Amino acid sequence: MPRVAILAGGLSHERDVSLRSGRRVAAALRDRGLAVSVLDVDANLVPALERLRPDVVWPLVHGSTGEDGSLQDLLGLLGLPYVGTLAAGCRLASNKPVAKAVLRAARLPTPDYAAFPQSLFREVGAQAVLSAVEAQLAMPLVVKPAGGGSALGVSLVESRDQLPDAMVSCFAYGDVALVETAVAGTEVAVSVVDLGEGPRALPAVEIVTEGPYDYDARYNAGRSEYFVPARLDAEQTRTVGDLAVAVHTTLGLRHLSRTDMILDADGTAWFLDVNVAPGMTETSLFPQAAQAAGDGDDIYVRIVRAAARG
Known about the structure:
With about 300 residues, the chain is of the alpha+beta class. About 40% of the residues lie in helices and about 25% in strands. The protein is built from twelve helices and 13 strands. α6 packs across α7. It starts with a strand and ends with a helix.
């Protein structure tokens, strides 16, 4: 059986979620007989990896270095096989405006958008930028950091006067703001696994939340209600599954991913975001989808084995 090192923690805003994900996957693998070490991403990481020389590394660091390709580059330089997307794909997927541009070029539906670094506001003036946004992008809008996840720094803007505060909140979590048109419809997350036989979509998860699907709603039980499989007909199920697989393939992702989307009243699935290191906590969406597919926690062993094969 492969010896596994799980990387969790790090210094991003999502550290707590990462630690919870790491503990949960480690427990699932140990229950199935694998030798597992859980390592924090700190100054001791490289010496620990060189000492352990695990057969497979599973980076479960959410946000920043865990998903932007840098940690993957380091593991590659150390010659260690790892779970998940290679560095190049991570860079495409983790930068939301870049991912949207690539997917739009592939004719996959994603809402209209613009992206602005904080420096542009200083150079040309905040009022000029916000006026251009208001003139060209229809309300309501969603403002979110171009990197990161867990809905940190995300705001729904329904009127012009809410836009400045939304930008301030966004820039607290990143230097680039993505502003996109909000799409009304059913919020759905579709996980994809690719274990050597081609990518397949797991059952869609429908998310129903009172208020915004923010950090608290994602990770504290009771704020959100999940329907797995989602309450979709056969055609809608195919539509959302096809989009998730197309995103996974177009961005060059590997082993696993999770695509967040909105299914509108006309049956169009709109890409919002993709995660190369999906959360694995008790309330996370990938584990719920795996359970509904009948894979349960055995899927984690199969993912490790796929990574060990290269």
